[in-house]
Amino acid sequence: MATQIQYDRLGGPEVLQVATVPDPVAPDDGVVVEVRAVGVNPIDGKLRSGGRPSAPITAPRVPGSDAAGVVLSVGAGVDGWAPGDEVVVRNARGAYTTHLVAPASHLVRKPAAVSWEQAAAIGVPVSTAHQVLVSLGVGPGTTLLIHGGSGSVGRVAIQLARRMGATVIATGSPANHERLRALGATPVAYGDGLLDRLRAAAPDGYDLILDAIGSDEALEASFALVDDRSRIGTIVVGPRAAELGIRAWGGGNPVPLTADELRLRDDAYALALALIAEGGLEVDIARTFPLTEAADAARLVESGHPGGKVILLP
Questions:
Q1: What are the angstrom distances between the C-alpha of 63 and each of 75, 153, 253, 266, 303?
Q2: Which pLDDT belongs to residue 259?
């Protein structure tokens, strides 16, 4: 029997329940993965709480889109994968489980040098950061401001932008400044006087801005620093992006991703895994929880200050 985390009504972490279900069977074009680690993302809580609109609940839902594990069984129509293969599952559906059904096309091979926790941590943060940075045009000689550099997406974005040749300034609380410096960014504190501090950090100005916070403070500072709002991107205020004149990815953005943007997200998995394996990308794991303590993990993520990725271990 498999164990999974379900909810049958919208609400806070308390609606998450532990359930036992029959072991799944691999479909013809898919596999069953024995899950070793699951990434917990803010979007999981937004969907569960109703903060992000979704279809009415007609059957118990299993949250989660990031998982890593070992292929347990393979469908009759699947080539290239076999039981025992260690994999990361892209765009998983219902990852909070011990046994996950996934299309074979969603599998990425996990290098031996990458831990299960790291493998489960990369999905949403890395795919989002990579796709946004490329779409914004980050490259050699550009100066990039990241609002919310200490979040999971922000930490990855700093490292990827530095590898692209950009100078990075990142906002964050003083407690996170040492880590932001270590990742390659110049840290700037939030709060009164933010605009003056940002101008002092980059006297020659900013080329591009990635907003990973969505606060009025961050948006107002962005508008004062960059005249061309198409050079400002957000991952958190999608529904307001059109009226603000900025670009948006994720965050409830009503505009579907283009085929090229989807490809960038998919390509990010192999890129990130290779970089982690060779020591070129660091993934900060804040804490791990047993799968059965998913509600406590959700509370930590939804506090807004987890200090890195939160991982569930089945």
A1: 24, 20, 20, 20, 18
A2: 83
